[in-house]
From TrEMBL:
Protein name according to UniProt: TetR/AcrR family transcriptional regulator
Record-linked InterPro entries: Homeodomain-like_sf, HTH-type_Tx_Regulator, HTH_TetR, TetR_C_Firmicutes
GO terms, molecular function: DNA binding
Record keywords: DNA-binding
DNA-binding region, residues: 36-55
PANTHER family the UniProt entry points to: ACREF/ENVCD OPERON REPRESSOR-RELATED, HTH TETR-TYPE DOMAIN-CONTAINING PROTEIN
Source organism per UniProt: Brevibacillus panacihumi
């Protein structure tokens, strides 16, 4: 929770959350461009006047909701050198927190990642994910571990892979737990999806 939200009057916070939830529910039913302020207020069992006491427009509502949820995400996946490890038999704690945070706001994340009209928000989320991956790559390099591919390509590869997996997980209504998803990404990020390297085995096998 952000400091600003923590200081907010509980009644104000509850009203704003009711409006956020109403918008997300409506996004399941129709395109964002077709949603009206009156509909959001009615779904939240509030009136139009109350809506405008808290937000200037539905765009303002959406953007503030997005900023709050992204702030929570950034805080939850903040990485410290002490927390970074290379254990592949346990899910990385930061990845567990990543999926737990997404699960908390699953409806919102599913909406912005699946709604064509909201791709500008998906791009902003992708940028946050890229910064997260870059932080991890920097830690790996600081430990003296190099890459066999260009670093910028590796960062983009992992960023889009993570976003793709998150999108799939949400689109399929989270068929696995956050811990299971974190375990899969921990393994794939460290050694890939295969249980052994077939290329090395082929090179080391004796020729007939």
């Amino acid at each position: 929770m952000s400091r600003e939200k923590a200081r907010m009057d509980p009644r104000v916070r509850r009203t704003r959350e009711m409006l956020w939830n109403a918008l997300i529910a409506l996004l399941y039913e129709k395109d964002y461009n077709k949603i009206r302020v009156n509909e959001i207020a009615e779904r939240a069992t509030l009136n139009r006047t109350t809506f405008y006491l808290h937000f200037n427009s539905k765009e303002d509502l959406l953007n503030q909701c997005f900023e709050e949820i992204m702030s929570e995400l950034i805080h939850s996946i903040a990485m410290t050198p002490e927390e970074f490890n290379y254990e592949i038999d346990e899910p990385h704690p930061i990845l567990v927190r990543l999926f737990e945070q997404i699960a908390i706001h699953a409806s919102f994340y599913r909406t912005i990642m699946m709604e064509d009209k909201l791709q500008h928000l998906t791009r902003r989320m992708t940028k946050i994910m890229e910064q997260f991956i870059t932080s991890g790559v920097s830690q790996i390099q600081a430990d003296g571990i190099g890459f066999v591919v260009s670093t910028d390509i590796a960062i983009r590869y992992f960023t889009m892979a993570y976003m793709g997996v998150i999108g799939w997980w949400l689109e399929n209504h989270m068929p696995y737990t956050p811990r299971h998803m974190a375990m899969q990404l921990t393994r794939m990020s460290s050694r890939g999806p295969l249980d052994r390297d077939p290329y090395l085995e082929k090179q080391s096998s004796p020729r007939p």
